[in-house]
């Protein structure tokens, strides 16, 4: 029995809001952290001083203790009497890991996993809740009404885009849902047949297309929405968890999605994330704190969360928490006799090695060393690996959630660039070659990979960069510039070592280098310490990257607004959000601009304006290879006129005339303006974009390979019908008279070879150096395919064409159609005729 008369009155105490003070008052429990690192304390102070801001990004180096920072911020908001504070993690493993951190500090909390809370702390407002992105964003989320969060901590915000997109993505796995897969194929087959692409679809879904995927025509979901919903119902989608939750999320908006097909699966997903359809982002009273590894640019953040953070709290550059020591060994610098798999097998007999692969297909070549664990056994097998003295562990298509610091592992083999698991990303990156759009994302993934076994300032390790894609990516200055500062310097230092040795590494050289790093050889330590900070990327590259990423971030913001409006069936408002970005994005990323054109075109199709839709689809096609499946208008007719386009320029002119007099006049004005370009006053980027855009205006698929892939010609015009190419190498920054040196010609020969390798079925009319008149060095050895095209000659040809189009503008309607039909068929304006107009002397004759 309780003697209530003996009890004292409870003493009220106001909990502290300062997160640093909260840490100091945590109980001295077993395994509790002794103190905060400087970077953690700085981050907490920075947040506390700006705690009223709605969107705050806290960036800390990988391994610098983000979770403790996030937990203390969450507890601070709980103490502020904000009852519902949610801490979101990427996986269940990380939920449990964050829970252990809370327990170490005596922080009360709930876990929401497997569709239930483990206690009532969150539900009663007495503690934060730790859960997953999946649980928060699912269509049946429990975080609503009285449990709606007033503050959310987004851990690992740098991977937020994938996690949020997953909640809007229905994946029909063929092995699990064979009948549903076939039913959907039957629905979309007529769309491919109508555009003459049925054979392409059959190739993709049968064994021949096992590693390929394709995008249905953009209007497919819009036109087939009811059929798609019906087959999901007929296949009892509610009984399958992998279908039920995401399909419920898009149920009312299937028509606004894109559909991608592969031999293994079908994916239905919006082309952009409708961020503002999510209450947690739409609601203004929610405070959002994003915890992220250090990121250089905000593009992917904007694409995931629909906003740029109000403030970013970053570590002091002199604070090196999370910055360990790394030696990177590039497979491209090994002798051909070096077998990296056998090398790994030899190493793993005495030491431990982590192996990263982008897919299970890649994992097959490592089967003699290790087997990837199943999803159910992953945590168990990883813990076993942590406790071993030797052996290997394979992680597949995973860049985070695995921490093996210090002696738990010091050697890592990175076999190929990390790629996304979605069909949308695979199609955009591999089929459409949207490298610029994915550059920042790839940099984040690469950074995360390098943080798996290297977690703190005193950590050290050896990393093997394997595969041509990984080696080439890491060697490009524009990519290195996207990495955090310390990793940039480590990549440059490692490359410098190979450059200085001047020869390929033997197996003995590699094993010796590993020993020098891991055995703490003083020569290595002295070299690393003295030289790491002496290398950096040139400022011009940083400036170009910053300009590109700023514009791409603005595009990302527009994309999320567009999709959110479309999700509400506000078609005109949606289009207004995106249409002004088309020309703003094109100079830095024409392929992303082409992707935007697709979905702006769809909005016109939804309103019945097929002429405008076709014009946008044509613009998109001009910026990609032949991988897009589009409904082109092949027959153009007016009252007394009918014709079918015979070539890309002919089709472009007809499209512009069909779109109306204003469109045709604008087209003429755009072409005239480019014919007056003063290339000597343009930056390299602007000059390349001008030449690319001229090619697009002429109806060709016009790209900038060097800008997109880091190699290849500056500009490439492709006539997809005749499979004919004109590569351009721009030398517009040279003074008149110019001297074309051995390096210029050597670069041209290299890029010419790239074109031949990547377009083996195409004919190259000739290779054009676009620049001032001048001479070619006697030491250079140009081949017979190389010609000089002066900027004056280039402008003159385009100006002549512009004048012909200007002559058509004032004619009667029937005269316009007849003259456009005639002009478009003239040989002088086809790709071979244009080359003849551009080409001056052969480079070897200068």
TrEMBL record:
MF terms (GO), sorted A to Z: helicase activity
Domain Helicase ATP-binding span(s) in chain numbering: 47-190
Gene3D superfamilies: P-loop containing nucleotide triphosphate hydrolases
UniProt cross-references to PROSITE patterns, sorted A to Z: HELICASE_ATP_BIND_1 (PS51192)
SMART domains hit by this protein: DEXDc, HELICc2
Alphabetical UniProt keywords: ATP-binding, Helicase, Hydrolase, Nucleotide-binding
PANTHER family, per database record: HELICASE A859L-RELATED, RAD25/XP-B DNA REPAIR HELICASE
Annotated protein name in UniProt: DEAD/DEAH box helicase family protein
Species the sequence originates in: Roseibium polysiphoniae
């Amino acid at each position: 029995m309780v003697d209530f008369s003996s009890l004292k009155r409870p003493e009220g105490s106001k909990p502290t809001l300062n997160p640093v003070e909260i840490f100091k008052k945590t109980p001295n429990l077993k395994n509790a952290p002794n103190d905060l690192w400087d970077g953690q304390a700085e981050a907490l102070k920075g947040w506390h001083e700006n705690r009223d801001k709605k969107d705050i990004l806290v960036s800390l180096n990988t391994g610098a203790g983000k979770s403790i920072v996030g937990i203390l911020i969450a507890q601070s908001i709980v103490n502020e009497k904000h009852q519902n504070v949610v801490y979101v993690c990427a996986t269940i493993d990380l939920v449990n890991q964050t829970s252990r951190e809370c327990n170490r500090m005596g922080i009360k909390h709930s876990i929401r996993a497997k569709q239930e809370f483990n206690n009532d702390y969150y539900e009663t407002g007495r503690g934060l809740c730790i859960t997953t992105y999946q649980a928060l964003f699912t269509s049946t989320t429990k975080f609503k009404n009285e449990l709606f969060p007033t503050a959310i901590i987004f851990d690992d915000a740098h991977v937020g885009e994938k996690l949020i997109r997953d909640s809007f993505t229905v994946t029909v796995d063929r092995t699990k849902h064979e009948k549903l897969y076939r039913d959907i194929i039957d629905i979309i087959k007529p769309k491919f047949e109508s555009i003459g692409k049925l054979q392409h679809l059959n190739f993709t879904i049968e064994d021949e297309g096992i590693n390929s995927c394709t995008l249905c025509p953009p209007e497919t979901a819009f036109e087939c929405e009811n059929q798609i919903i019906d087959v999901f119902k007929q296949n009892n989608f509610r009984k399958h968890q992998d279908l039920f939750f995401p399909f419920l999320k898009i149920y009312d908006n299937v028509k606004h999605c894109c559909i991608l097909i592969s031999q293994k699966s079908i994916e239905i997903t919006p082309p952009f994330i409708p961020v503002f359809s999510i209450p947690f982002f739409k609601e203004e009273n929610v405070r959002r704190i994003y915890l992220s590894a250090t990121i250089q640019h905000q593009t992917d953040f904007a694409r995931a969360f629909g906003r740029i953070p109000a403030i970013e709290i970053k570590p002091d550059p002199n604070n090196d928490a999370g910055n360990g020591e790394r030696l990177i060994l590039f497979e491209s610098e090994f002798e051909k006799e070096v077998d990296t798999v056998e090398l790994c097998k030899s190493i793993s007999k005495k030491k431990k090695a982590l192996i990263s692969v982008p897919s299970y297909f890649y994992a097959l070549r490592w089967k003699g060393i290790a087997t990837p664990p199943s999803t159910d056994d992953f945590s168990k097998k990883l813990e076993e690996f942590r406790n071993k003295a030797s052996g290997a562990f394979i992680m597949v298509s995973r860049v985070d959630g695995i921490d093996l610091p210090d002696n738990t592992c010091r050697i890592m083999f990175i076999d190929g660039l990390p790629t996304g698991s979605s069909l949308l990303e695979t199609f955009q990156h591999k089929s459409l070659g949207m490298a610029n759009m994915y550059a920042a994302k790839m940099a984040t993934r690469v950074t995360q990979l390098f943080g798996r076994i290297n977690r703190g300032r005193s950590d050290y390790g050896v990393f093997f960069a394997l595969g041509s894609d990984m080696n080439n990516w890491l060697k490009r200055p524009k990519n290195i510039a996207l990495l955090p500062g310390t990793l940039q310097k480590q990549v440059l230092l490692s490359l410098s070592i190979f450059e200085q040795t001047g020869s390929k590494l033997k197996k003995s050289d590699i094993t010796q280098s590993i020993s020098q790093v891991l055995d703490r050889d003083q020569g290595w330590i002295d070299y690393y310490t003295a030289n790491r900070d002496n290398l950096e990327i040139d400022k011009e590259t940083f400036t170009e990257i910053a300009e590109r990423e700023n514009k791409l971030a603005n595009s990302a913001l527009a994309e999320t607004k567009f999709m959110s409006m479309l999700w509400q069936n506000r078609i005109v408002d949606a289009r207004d959000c995106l249409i002004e970005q088309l020309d703003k994005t094109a100079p830095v990323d024409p392929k992303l601009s082409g992707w935007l054109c697709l979905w702006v075109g769809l909005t016109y199709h939804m309103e019945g304006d097929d002429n405008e839709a076709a014009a946008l689809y044509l613009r998109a096609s001009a910026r990609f290879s032949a991988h897009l499946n589009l409904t082109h208008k092949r027959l153009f007719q007016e009252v007394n006129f009918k014709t079918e386009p015979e070539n890309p320029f002919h089709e472009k002119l007809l499209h512009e005339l069909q779109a109306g007099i204003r469109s045709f006049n604008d087209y003429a004005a755009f072409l005239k303006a480019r014919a007056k370009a003063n290339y000597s006053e343009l930056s390299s980027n602007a000059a390349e974009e001008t030449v690319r855009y001229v090619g697009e205006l002429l109806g060709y698929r016009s790209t900038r390979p060097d800008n997109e892939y880091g190699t290849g010609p500056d500009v490439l015009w492709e006539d997809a019908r005749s499979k004919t190419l004109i590569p351009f190498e721009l030398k517009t920054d040279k003074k008149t008279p110019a001297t074309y040196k051995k390096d210029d010609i050597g670069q041209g020969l290299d890029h010419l070879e790239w074109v031949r390798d990547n377009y083996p079925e195409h004919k190259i009319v000739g290779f054009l150096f676009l620049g001032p008149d001048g001479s070619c060095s006697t030491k250079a050895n140009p081949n017979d395919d190389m010609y000089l095209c002066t900027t004056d000659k280039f402008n003159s040809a385009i100006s002549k064409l512009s004048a012909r189009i200007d002559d058509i503008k004032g004619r009667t309607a029937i005269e316009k159609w007849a003259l456009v039909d005639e002009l478009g068929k003239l040989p002088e304006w086809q790709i071979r005729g244009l080359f003849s107009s551009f080409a001056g002397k052969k480079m070897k004759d200068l």
